[in-house]
Amino acid sequence: MAGFVLVGVIIGAVLLIWLRGKSDGVKMLLDGLAVLAYLGFFVLGAASVARTIMDDTVFMTQVHEVFNSPIFLVSGAYLGPYGLALLVQQMVGRRS
């Protein structure tokens, strides 16, 4: 399954690189969609993790134990704003 995901990501990346080469308008559109997707993904994920921790409903299976990991929580707290800043900087920097 991981192989299918990896191949899909690579094919998607190649397609996006090709589309970004079409025009500046397409680049802006794709960057805007990336910001929206990033915000949606991060906000929903963070809200779910926070709700799980606050409700004390972390089921201690191996996949769920990550919600109790300070490294996971601190990394997510850093990567959220950092990733968004990079996306916005890339999008705004092109206009200059």
Q: What is the residue-mean pLDDT, rounded to a whole number?
A: 85
| Number of helices, where a helix is a run of at least 4 consecutive DSSP H or I residues | 3
SSE arrangement, N to C: HHH
Rg estimate, integer Å: 17 Å
- Percent of residues in beta strands: under 5%
Stretches where pLDDT falls below 50 for ≥5 residues? none
**What profile does the largest beta sheet have?**
none
What is the number of independent domains? 1
What is the β-strand count? 0
Question: What is the straight-line distance between the termini?
Answer: 42 Å
Shape: extended
Instruction: Work out the oligomeric state of the chains in this entry.
Output: single chain
| Helix share bin | over 70%
List keywords for this structure.
96 residues; mainly alpha; membrane; transmembrane helix; transmembrane
Written overview of the protein:
- The chain has one domain (23-93).
- It has helices at residues 2-20, 24-54, 70-93.
- Helix 2 (24-54) packs antiparallel against helix 3 (70-93).
- It contains three helices and no strands.
- With 96 residues, the protein is mainly alpha-helical.
- The longest helix is centred in the middle third of the chain and has 31 residues, at 24-54.
- The N and C termini lie far apart (42 Å).
- 77% of the residues lie in helices and 0% in strands.
- The radius of gyration is 17 Å and the shape is extended.
